[in-house]
Design goal:
Layout (H helix, E strand, L loop, with lengths): L4 H28 L4 H34 L3 H4 L5 H4 L3 E6 L2 E6 L4 E7 L1 E6 L2 E6 L2 E5 L5 E7 L1 E2 L6 E6 L2 E6 L4 E7 L1 E2 L6 E6 L2 E6 L4 E7 L1 E2 L6 E6 L2 E6 L4 E7 L1 E2 L6 E6 L2 E6 L4 E7 L1 E2 L6 E6 L2 E6 L4 E7 L1 E2 L6 E6 L2 E6 L4 E7 L1 E2 L7 E5 L2 E5 L7 E5 L1 E2 L6 E6 L2 E6 L4 E7 L1 E6 L2 E6 L2 E6 L4 E7 L1 E4 L4 E6 L2 E6 L4 E2 L6
Antiparallel strand pairs: 1-2, 2-3, 4-5, 5-6, 6-7, 8-9, 9-10, 10-11, 12-13, 13-14, 14-15, 16-17, 17-18, 18-19, 20-21, 21-22, 22-23, 24-25, 25-26, 26-27, 28-29, 29-30, 30-31, 32-33, 33-34, 34-35, 36-37, 37-38, 38-39, 40-41, 41-42, 42-43, 44-45, 45-46, 46-47
Helix pairs in contact: 1-2
Length: 489
C-alpha cells in the first residue's frame, strides 16, 4: 500500500474525534444510571481504565501516522547515500519493484517505472529500464534515454558507455563526446583514456580527439610525460602529444625515473634520456631504475653504480648491493660489508662480517663475532665487544654479553647494568626487567625501584604499577613505595 500526504492527514484528523466520542459516551452512561456506591466506584475505575486504554490506542495511531509522514520527509531522505544531491528536493523511492523520485512531502515527481535509479555523481544519476541505461539530472529529467547496454560511473568528468559491444563516452551534460566505436576503452584519468580497435591501442583526450592513433600492440602508463609502447614485438616511447621520441627498437624497457630509463636489447641493458638518446650502451646483464642519482648495474654477477650521465661511478665489483637508506647503501665484497654514499663513494670499506643500517648516525657492525657501532666517518665509536646489540633508539641501545642484557648510551656508558635475562620498555621512563623468572622495575637511569621478585607486573595507570606474587597483589608508585590505589570513578 502506498501512502501519500492525504493518508496521514486523514488519520491525524479522525483520531482526536474518535477519542472525544468514546470518552463522552462513557461519561453519559455513568451519569444516566443509578448504581450502588460500590458499583459506582467500580464503574468509575472501569471508566478510568477505558480512558487510559483509549489514550494508548490514540498514541499508537498517532505514532503510526507520524511514521508514515516521516517516510516521505527529511528523516527518511537522509538515509540515502546520495543525500548531498537529493535531500533538499528529491529522494529515491521504490514501490512495487519499481523506482521513482518523490519530494519531501511524499509527492510523486518521477513515476515508479525504472528498474533502478543510482545515486547522483557529476550532476547526473544512472537509470535502468528493461536492461538499458540512461541518465537523469537532479530535477528528475531524463537527459539521456535508457538506450545503452552499460554505463559506468563518471571518472574525470566522463562516463564510459557500451552499445552493441562498442564503447564510447558521455559527459555530465548528456553530450555523447565519443560515439560508441571502440572495441574496448578504459576510464579517463588525468584527461586521457586508452582505447582499442581490434588489437591496436591508442589514446584519446576529453574532446574525443585521438592524440595517439590505435596503432600499438600495448601502451603502458605515462611516467614523466613518456609512455612505453609496443609494436611488432619491439618497445619504444611516445610523449603525451603522441610523438614517438624513440621508435620501437628495444626488446624490453622500464618507465622513466629521474629523467632516465633502462632499455634492453639482445639481453643487455643500457640507459636512455628523455630525448631518446642512449647515455649508456646496452652492456649490462641487469639494471635497476634511478631511484636516487644512481642506478645499480650488474655484469657477470658483480654489481656497481652508474650515474645519470651514464658514467660508472663504481665499476661492477661487489657481490651484493642493498637499497639506499638514509643516504647510504650496504655493499658486500669478498664476504665483508661496507657502505657507499649516493655519490658512489665508499665511505666505509667492506671489512665487517655483518652490518645494519644507520639509525641516529650510528650503525651496528660485527667483527670477529662481536658487535659494536660505527659513525658515518667510519670511526668505531663503540668497540666490537658485545655478543648482540640492537640499533639505537632515543639515544640508547640494548646490548647483550654472557647471556645477560643491559643498556648503553651513544658514549658506550652503561646506564642499565648487563645483568638481566631480559629488559622490556614498559612505561614512560620505566623498564620491566626479568631475572630468574621473576620481574622487577627499573628507571631509564638504571635505578632499580622494584626488585625482580614478582611473578607478574602490570601498569595500573601512568604513575602506579600492580605487582603480583601468587595471590598477593600490591600497588607501588614510581618511587617503589607501596600505596593504596585510588578508587575508580
Amino acid at each position: 500500500m502506498y501512502f501519500n500526504n492525504c493518508n496521514y492527514k486523514i488519520l491525524l484528523t479522525i483520531i482526536p474525534k474518535i477519542s472525544t466520542k468514546l470518552s463522552l459516551k462513557l461519561n453519559l452512561n455513568l451519569q444516566s444510571k443509578s448504581y450502588s456506591k460500590n458499583q459506582k466506584n467500580n464503574c468509575i475505575f472501569g471508566s478510568i481504565m477505558s480512558k487510559l486504554l483509549i489514550l494508548c490506542c490514540v498514541k499508537i495511531l498517532l505514532y503510526y501516522a507520524l511514521s508514515v509522514q516521516e517516510a516521505f520527509g527529511q528523516k527518511k531522505t537522509s538515509n540515502f547515500k546520495d543525500k548531498k544531491y537529493f535531500t533538499k528536493v528529491l529522494t529515491r523511492a521504490k514501490s512495487k519493484g519499481k523506482w521513482g523520485l518523490i519530494d519531501k512531502q511524499g509527492n510523486e515527481v518521477v513515476g515508479f517505472k525504472y528498474d533502478f535509479i543510482a545515486g547522483i555523481t557529476d550532476g547526473v544519476a544512472i537509470i535502468e529500464l528493461d536492461k538499458k541505461y540512461g541518465l537523469l539530472n537532479p530535477k528528475g529529467e531524463e537527459v539521456v534515454q535508457p538506450r545503452y547496454d552499460e554505463i559506468a560511473n563518471f571518472k574525470d568528468g566522463l562516463a564510459r558507455v557500451i552499445l552493441n559491444n562498442k564503447t564510447g563516452f558521455v559527459g555530465a551534460k548528456a553530450i555523447e563526446v565519443v560515439p560508441p566505436m571502440y572495441d574496448k576503452a578504459y576510464d579517463f584519468n588525468k584527461g586521457i583514456a586508452y582505447v582499442r580497435i581490434s588489437a591496436k591501442w591508442g589514446i584519446i583526450n576529453k574532446t574525443g580527439t585521438e592524440i595517439i592513433k590505435p596503432t600499438y600492440d600495448t601502451i603502458y602508463s605515462f611516467s614523466q610525460d613518456l609512455a612505453p609502447v609496443l609494436a611488432e614485438k619491439k618497445w619504444g616511447y611516445i610523449n603525451a602529444k603522441g610523438k614517438e621520441i624513440l621508435k620501437p627498437t628495444y626488446d624490453q624497457v622500464k618507465p622513466f625515473t629521474n629523467s632516465v630509463a633502462s632499455v634492453c636489447i639482445n639481453g643487455k641493458w643500457g640507459f636512455i634520456n628523455t630525448q631518446g638518446k642512449e647515455i649508456t650502451k646496452p652492456i649490462y646483464d641487469s639494471s635497476s631504475v634511478f631511484i636516487t642519482d644512481l642506478a645499480r648495474v650488474c655484469v657477470d654477477k658483480k654489481y656497481g653504480f652508474v650515474n645519470k650521465k651514464g658514467k660508472e661511478v663504481n665499476k661492477p665489483q661487489y657481490d651484493e648491493i642493498n637499497d639506499f637508506a638514509n643516504g647510504l647503501t650496504l655493499v658486500k665484497l669478498n664476504g665483508k660489508w661496507g657502505f657507499v654514499n649516493k655519490k658512489g663513494i665508499e665511505i666505509i670499506e667492506p671489512k665487517y662480517t655483518r652490518v645494519d643500517n644507520f639509525t641516529e648516525n650510528l650503525a651496528p657492525v660485527q667483527a670477529n663475532g662481536k658487535w659494536g657501532f660505527i659513525n658515518k666517518k667510519a670511526k668505531e665509536t663503540i668497540p666490537t665487544t658485545y655478543t648482540q646489540v640492537l640499533s639505537f633508539k632515543q639515544g640508547v641501545s640494548k646490548i647483550k654479553n654472557d647471556g645477560k642484557w643491559g643498556y648503553i648510551n651513544s658514549s658506550n656508558k652503561i646506564i642499565i647494568p648487563v645483568q638481566y635475562d631480559d629488559i622490556i620498555p614498559f612505561n614512560k621512563g620505566v623498564y620491566k626487567v626479568k631475572s630468574g623468572g621473576k620481574y622487577g622495575l627499573i628507571t631509564t637511569n638504571g635505578k632499580e625501584f622494584v626488585p625482580p621478585t614478582y611473578d607478574r607486573i602490570e601498569v595500573y595507570n601512568t604513575t602506579i604499577f600492580t605487582l603480583y606474587t601468587g595471590r598477593k597483589v600490591v600497588y607501588v608508585n614510581k618511587k617503589g613505595k607501596e600505596i593504596i590505589p585510588p578508587k575508580a570513578d
